[in-house]
Write a structure and sequence with these properties.
Layout (H helix, E strand, L loop, with lengths): L6 E2 L2 H12 L7 H18 L5 E6 L3 H15 L3 E6 L8 H11 L17 E5 L4 H4 L7 H13 L3 E4 L21 E5 L4 H4 L3 H4 L2 E5 L5 H4 L4 E4 L1 H4 L18 E6 L5 H13 L4 E6 L15 E3 L1 H6 L5 E4 L7 H12 L4 E3 L1 H9 L1 H8 L5 E3 L3 H7 L4 H6 L1 H12 L2 E4 L5 E3 L5 E4 L11 H14 L4 H23 L7 H25 L1
Parallel strand pairs: 2-3, 2-4, 4-5, 5-6, 6-7, 8-17, 9-10, 9-12, 10-11, 12-13, 13-14, 14-15
Antiparallel strand pairs: 1-8, 15-16, 16-17
Length: 511
């Protein structure tokens, strides 16, 4: 697995892999393998002392069966186990019944609810896992809702099996309530819901156990993780000594209507500091500045002047564009060009409103990247934000198909989709990015990488991960996310990208 990109699997794909595994010669009992792996993690990472008291919750499905196996192993390893089973034995699968029977052979105590006036040192959550996706993502209610709330109120370390109970494994949605896990051990492969939407908030540390299966051979993935390992394969080469500003392209950034010039400046500064050879800003506002005193290297132009330039290699449109009629006109000009486009902010809103612009975008032959947040995505797809967030994977794919574009649907676990249908989920970033201007910076970074001749898919994936990683670096420096600014993201991203390109190159020379 170390030399492969990290795949992500939908619930239906996991179930198919399980079915295929059961038909293999000398197939292992996956429930036994999963329970043993989780018990090891609990003993080594969650409890760390064989006299500790552990509360184990077993639900009505196969996740509960995994929990029975965990309980048996921890009991054999001399932990004090309290097992709560919330289901009906007669409705368990054969594997889960066998796991329960194996537990009963060493301990007859099975509770139907959490005992009162007892104390534990850790909790194993085996209530649902991916089971909620089989129940049409119904909200938890009644006893199950009470159990989840009770566990969260105990303020104890929790190991969740496969997926924290109450979390949608395909979409990261919250179904009534979700157990806050300290560690989530997920089986066979990663699931999208662990990585996007509310998943990062509830999963804690995520550990994958493949249960001895060659998952790649059994199921070709179409969803991948954007992580540090993947990014190493996307980096541009070190710059040659015999180079000049023309070697690294010229980017145009179109926006800057009255009161929103700052957004365009942020995008321009990001493009400059992330390596574009020349950066031109086309500012709409009539009283636009003629120079950026903070970054005088930026070349400020009127929109007319910008579109007359014949040396541009990429165009970003949207940061600070505004919703006035002249914004529509400039988007129309951009879509008529043969330049690679990054389309952001109000440019997306114009396309959502004006059918002509949407059709023109669909018919372009030169590639484009759309960078919507959920509200912008909802306008583009003529739905509400909740619909987007309820299935972020599907929404990103629909945007890509409808507009024939590469897409990054921003948010926790940003989702990147290419026109060929491949999905990537980003795992960098934190809540410090929830501040004005960070999206403008991302657009500038994407444009900078594009104008340096990085292939469009690579530019998008690298930019999205780098943007989040820059925020993660600042999180450590600042001891938290509060007050993180877009300008800081740019400088942090520059430091990281230089270190990745040149340190990895130096390491390769030494080997």
């Amino acid at each position: 697995m170390m030399n492969r990109a990290t795949p992500v699997y939908l619930t239906a794909e996991i179930r198919e892999i399980e079915r295929m595994a059961a038909t293999l010669p000398d197939s292992a009992n996956l429930m036994e393998e999963a329970g043993f792996a989780a018990a090891q993690i609990a003993a080594e990472r969650l409890l760390r002392h064989d006299k500790y008291q552990v509360l184990i919750l077993a639900g009505p499905g196969n996740n509960g069966g995994d929990a029975f196996v965990v309980a048996r192993y921890l009991k054999q390893w001399w932990f004090n186990v309290t097992l709560v089973f919330t289901g009906d034995r007669s409705k368990l699968s054969n594997d889960a019944k066998q796991a329960l029977d194996a537990w009963l052979m060493i301990d007859n105590n099975v509770f139907s609810e959490i005992p009162a006036n007892e104390k534990w040192h850790g909790i194993i959550d085996g209530l649902f896992g991916i089971g909620l996706d089989q129940q049409n993502n119904r909200n938890l209610e009644g006893n199950y809702l009470n159990l989840v709330n009770a566990i969260n109120q105990m303020n104890l370390p929790v190991l969740s099996l496969d997926v924290p109970s109450g979390l949608g494994s395909d979409n990261g949605c919250v179904y009534g309530a979700v157990i806050h896990a300290t560690i989530t051990v997920t089986f066979i492969g990663l699931k999208p819901g662990l990585l996007t939407n509310f998943g990062p908030e509830y999963c804690g540390e995520i550990l994958v156990r493949d249960l001895g299966l060659d998952v790649f051979a059994m199921m070709t993935p179409h969803i991948w993780v954007i992580n540090q390992q993947a990014v190493q394969k996307l980096l541009p080469p070190p710059r040659p000594a015999n180079s000049h500003k023309g070697t690294f392209g010229s980017i145009g950034i179109m926006g800057g209507s009255t009161g929103m010039i700052g957004a365009t400046l942020l995008a321009g500064r990001a493009a400059l500091k992330l390596g574009a050879g020349r950066v031109y800003l086309g500012l709409i506002a009539r009283n636009s500045p003629v120079v950026d005193s903070t970054q005088p290297e930026l070349m400020l132009r009127s929109p007319h002047e910008l579109f007359k330039l014949d040396n541009l290699t990429c165009l970003v449109i949207g940061p600070g564009l505004g919703m006035e009629s002249d914004g529509y006109s400039w988007i129309n000009c951009a879509l008529s060009s043969e330049l690679p486009l990054v389309i952001d902010a109000d440019a997306l809103n114009h396309i959502a409103i004006h059918t002509h612009l949407a059709e023109k975008l669909q018919q372009r032959h030169t590639p484009a990247i759309l960078t919507p947040h959920p509200a912008e995505a909802a306008r583009l797809l003529n739905c509400n934000t909740a619909t987007i967030q309820n299935d972020r994977m599907a929404a990103a794919l629909k945007l890509s198909e409808r507009f024939n574009c590469h897409v990054v649907l921003k948010g926790a676990g940003s989702i990147c989709v290419s026109p060929d249908g491949d999905h990537h989920i980003n795992v960098s970033g934190n809540s410090g990015l929830s501040s004005a201007g960070t999206g403008d910076v991302l657009s500038g970074i994407i444009g900078a990488l594009l104008t340096q001749n990085l292939e469009i898919r690579k530019a998008l994936l690298l930019a999205v991960f780098l943007h989040g990683a820059a925020a993660d670096s600042l999180l450590k420096q600042n001891n938290g996310p509060l007050g993180m600014t877009a300008s800081e993201i740019t400088d942090s991203a520059r430091l990281l990208l230089n270190s990745w390109i040149y340190n990895s190159n130096n390491s390769g020379d030494k080997n």
